[in-house]
C-alpha cells in the first residue's frame, strides 16, 4: 500500500476511539421534504458525501462531489509479490471515516441547494469554518461531479490531490456512477473480488494508475 494511503489508515485507526460524528442509526426513517434554505444541527455521517440531520429528519448530500459508496473497494496498483490479486482498499469506509473525523463534535450548517419541496437535498455544508466537500477533495477521498466543475477553488484543490496522488488518486477504482449502475451486491459484506470483476469490464478510467498501466511492459518476468 502506498505511504499516503497507509498514513490515512493509521490516522483514522488511531482516531477511532475519539468522539466524532455518529453513524446513521439503523432503521432511520425516510427523509422528509425540505422546506428550509439553511439547516444547522448535529449530524450522523451516512457515507463520504451524505449527512443525516436526525433532529430534522433530513438527508443532505454534499453538493458538487462524489465518493465511493460504503461497500465499494479500490485497489493499490503497487507491486504485490504475495498475491496474484491487487491489494484492496476500502475506499467507501475510508471516505466515511474521514468525514466523521473532520466534523468531530461540531454542529454542521448546510446551505441547501435543492428547491423547497424536494425530497432529496444537497447543500454546501460546513463544520465551523471547514467546507466539508472541499476537505474531502483535499485529501483525495472524493471527486468533483461533472455538474460542479465551475468552482475554481474546488477545481484547483482536486488538481493538487490528483497530482500528489492522495487517496483514491493513488488507486485503481471504478467510477462511482458506473459502480452504482453495475454492482449487484451492495451490502456491507461485499468482497473485493466483486470489484476486481467490475474493473475488468470498466468503461471509464478515472485515476492516474490506469494511465500508468498502459505504459507497463507486456511482461515483467525478465
Automatic annotation (TrEMBL):
Residues 37-171 form the TNase-like domain. It comes from the Bacteria. Gene3D superfamilies: 2.40.50.90. InterPro entries: SNase_OB-fold_sf, Staphylococal_nuclease_OB-fold. This is Nuclease. It comes from Phyllobacterium sophorae. The lineage of its organism: Bacteria, Pseudomonadati, Pseudomonadota, Alphaproteobacteria, Hyphomicrobiales.
